[in-house]
Structure formats: C-alpha cells, structure tokens
Amino acid sequence: MTETGTITVKRGLAQMLKGGVIMDVVTPEQAAIAQDAGAVAVMALERIPADIRADGGVARMSNLELVQSIMDAVTIPVMAKVRIGHFAEAQALQALGVDFIDESEVLTPADEKYHVSKHLFTTPFVCGARDLGEALRRIAEGAAMIRSKGEAGSGNIVEAVRHMRSIRDAIKELTVVPEEELTARARDLGAPLELVREAARAGRLPVVLFCAGGVSTPADAALMMQLGAEGIFVGSGIFKSNSPKAFAKAIVDATTHFEDPNVIVAASKSLGKGAQAMAGIDLRNLPESELLASRGN
Amino acid sequence: MAPKAGISERISIGVLALQGDVEEHIAAMRRAGVSAVGVKTRADLARVDGLIVPGGESTTVMKLLARFELGKPLQDRVRAGLPLWGTCMGTIVVAREVVGLEQPTLGLIDIAVRRNAFGRQNDSAEVALPIPVLGAEPFPAIFIRAPWIERQGRDVQSLAERDGHSVMVRERNVLCTSFHPELTADTRVHEYFLSMVLEASEASRAAGIGNRRDVA
C-alpha cells in the first residue's frame, strides 16, 4: 500500500516547517540567498507584496517559468500563490510540482464568494485567516496549514498581532466551554462543529499555525513566536530592507531562539549600524479598499 | 519491548529543538510512557541520555547547529556512545554524506543519503512498511519529501527497505529512519529507540561511568 496526497502527508509537510522562516523571493538568486540564510522554504513570486501594493493592477499567479527556475535553484520546499478561488491556477501549480500552494489574499481574488476546494488536490495548501472561524473554514475546505493574514507588504506588525491574538484567544476560550455550548459556538464562528470540537479538545488548530503579514525585524519574529505562532512568513521584510542577507539570517536566528532576548540582541546587532528595515505604512491612514486582509472570508 | 514503569526517573530523552516537528516526538514519547524535553543549548544537550533529531529542513538545522555551536558537542557525545535517532531530516544531518550535493553533515553514521529521493511533496506517501525487527505487523510509515540510504558501510544494519532502498538503518548507537514514526499512533519505533537508550544507560552504569555529562 502506497498512498499519496493524504491529509497526514499534507499536514505533515507543514509540521516539518515548524520553528522556521519562509521567505518571499522573486528570483532564483534571492531563493539561494534565502536558503543560505537558513530559510525552511521559499515563496516564489513575481512581485513581493510591497510592490504589488505600490504597482496596483491585477495580481495573478506568478510566471511558471520563474517558479520552475526557483524550484531548480534550491533544495528546500518551494511554495507559490494562487488567487482566492482560482482552482485552475492551483491545478497548474500542482502539475508543475510545487510543494505547497498559498491561496492568498495578496493576489487579486478570482472568486468573491468561494475558496478552492483543497481536498481535491495532492499538493497541500496554506491559507490566511484573521480569526478562528476563518481558520476553521479554510481547514474544512482542506487547508493543511494556516497563517495569520496580517497586512502583507505593510512592514507593520499590528495586524498580525491582532489576528494571532484573535485566533489563539478564541481557542483558549473554547477549551473551557461546556460541551453543550459547542454547537452554538460553531454557529457563531461559522465553522463546522466537528472542527470546533477538535480545537476545543486539543487547545490548538488541527494544522500548523504560522504568522504572516508585517514581520520586518528579528524582534517582530520573536514577538509573533511568543504570541503562539509556530513559524514565520517574511515577505517584503527581507528584500525590501537595505541588507537582505543580514536581515534573512537575523530573522532566522530570532525565530529559533525567540524566548532568549540575548539572541535577539545579537541578531539585531548583526545587522550593523546602517541597517534599515523596510519603511512600512501606518495602516490607520490606509483606506479600507486598499487593505488586503479583508479579501476572502 | 514495552518500557517499564518509572523509566522517566532513570533516563532523560531529548529532542533537538532548533527547528522541525519537535512537539510531535515529545508527544509520541509520552504515548510510549516517557517524558522528553526539547534540546536547544549545550547545557540541554549535556543533560540527556538519548537524543532524537526530528523532521525538518536539513540545510536550516545544519546552519543553526554551526551558528549556535551545538554541532561539535553533539558529535562528541554521540561518538562517546550517546544513543541518537534521526527521523527524515535527522537522517540527513547525521549521515556521512549527501549524494550529489555539497551539503555539510555531522558524519555520525556510515551512510550516504539521497535527499528527496522519492520525489517532491506530491510524491510524499503513507506506506505499510515491513520492519521485521518490530514484529510481523507492517509499520504505518509516513514519507515526506523523504531521503533514502543510497550506500551504507559494512557495519550498518538495514532494518527496512522501500523500493529496494534502505529507509531504516542502525550502526551501534545511531538509528535512522527516513520516515516519520512521530506522526502516527504506532509507538513501536519510539519503544525500539527507548530500548537502545536503556541498554546504553545500563551498560555505562554497570561499567561505573555516567554517560550523562556534567553541565559545563
């Protein structure tokens, strides 16, 4: 008996990435820098979120030649993004052989109502979530990994903190809710009762939970790990800084030893005096229509 | 082979906790009746009687072992007899060499491994794997972007094969599986490793030397 594409092997790959940093890259050279810095995986993209935000227009799945060249450049797993609900883009990425598909709000949604039915795929999916209900809906559709949405390309950690706290607090609350209240909780969360019960019993999501959207310094990574993230996605934070190699390595070190402030000090110092994290955006000045996190629910 | 009661007071199992599925191994050991702890520092390493190197990314963990100066003390302890079990990534980390790649390894077992040998993630699979040393019942082996053992030294014993390649090997105090027993409910491989740790700790106790090092 040999069975591929099972829930166990899909969720399993996410479990192997725990405690690690997944970096956005737009060229094979950047992918090699990321691997050399200790990234556990790379996200192959045409444009990083900060540039998608600046350029405007429709953001789609990346050029597949580019994705292939990044797959050829590294030995670590390669992820790539599809638009929310765009199952044909996902079919293409699966056929190409990427290791993980991110159904991502960073790209322009293809379907305003429905996400991809991810159980139909052999390739595992990661999806963004702002709260527990959203996370459990994505898991019900077959997501093998969840990441906080944060606000991609903003360089601002505030939304990632909000989403991570929201998910973790809601789970913590569920663990002390009496059994007879779970149906009503499931209704309020808009999530299947079975998954709500599973989260209540285990005190955690049934899949790995990473943080994404706004991490730009070693201290940001340590903050999110202490808030309960099991690993970190860094998008614009590395290749929009003035020293990508140093930032990549420092964020990896801080993610590994997130509970040791001395390591955070050493990692931050290793960036050098002239180090500048990406500029970042004060999200309070951003109109609702420009927020990526509200795409998909 | 089931571990005896009170085993946790006598031996301490560590799981290298730089990156990877550390909690899954700790939980599996708990199911086997033993508590285990994460190992992140040299002081942690000095306290354990057996060490598991979990699943994860081998390039990442090799870099972290070097950056945080844990590779050398780990090599020293295993060469002095510390029982070690590598799962998937762990197999790559402790191998003598990686075929076709210039990837550094710790060289603690005489095997050459091929990374992602069964393919990329779409080829990751659950396999009913015969492992004679664990009994007649096949083991529910979970392979995730798994390596195989392409070449092995004379003293390395092959304990299981898939498609004609070794996927579970042992050389003295070092055990390697290219699959992930920690992701299943079956604790037989964890119990097998526990018996290796117990044997080593009883042998060193009989010889009057503590295998466990004092914290420097």
Describe this structure as you would to a colleague.
The complex is a heterodimer of chains A (297) and B (216). Chain A has 297 residues and is an alpha/beta fold. In chain A, 42% of the residues lie in helices and 13% in strands. Chain A is built from 13 helices and nine strands. Chain A has helices at residues 7-16, 28-37, 49-55, 64-73, 87-96, 132-140, 158-174, 182-189, 193-202, 218-226, 236-239, 244-256, 261-269, and strands at residues 2-4, 21-25, 41-44, 78-83, 100-104, 125-129, 145-148, 208-210, 232-234. Chain A has an eight-stranded parallel β-sheet with strand order 8-7-6-5-4-3-2-9. In chain A, strand 2 (21-25), helix 2 (28-37) and strand 3 form a beta-alpha-beta unit. In chain A, helix 2 (28-37) packs parallel to helix 12 (244-256), helix 7 packs across helix 9 (193-202) and helix 12 runs antiparallel to helix 13. The termini of chain A are far apart. Chain B has a seven-stranded mixed β-sheet with strand order 2-1-3-4-12-11-10. Chain B has a three-stranded mixed β-sheet with strand order 5-6-9. Chain B has helices spanning 7-10, 22-31, 42-46, 58-67, 71-79, 89-94, 188-206; strands at 13-16, 36-39, 50-53, 84-87, 95-98, 109-114, 125-129, 139-143, 148-152, 157-162, 165-171, 174-177. In chain B, 29% of the residues lie in helices and 27% in strands. The model of chain B has no long low-confidence stretch (mean pLDDT 93). In chain B, strand 11 (165-171) and strand 12 (174-177) form a beta hairpin. Chain B contains seven helices and twelve strands. By secondary structure, chain B is of the alpha/beta class. Chain B starts with 6 loop residues before the first helix and ends in a 10-residue tail after the last helix. Chain B is globular. The chains are: A alpha/beta (297), B alpha/beta (216). Chain A binds chain B through residues 1-6, 8-9, 12-13, 15-20, 35, 37-41, 75-77, 94, 97-100, 122-124, 252-253, 256-257, and chain B through 17-24, 40, 55-57, 59-60, 63-64, 67-68, 88-89, 101, 103, 115-116, 120-128, 142-145, 180, 183. Strand 1 of chain A pairs antiparallel with strand 7 of chain B.
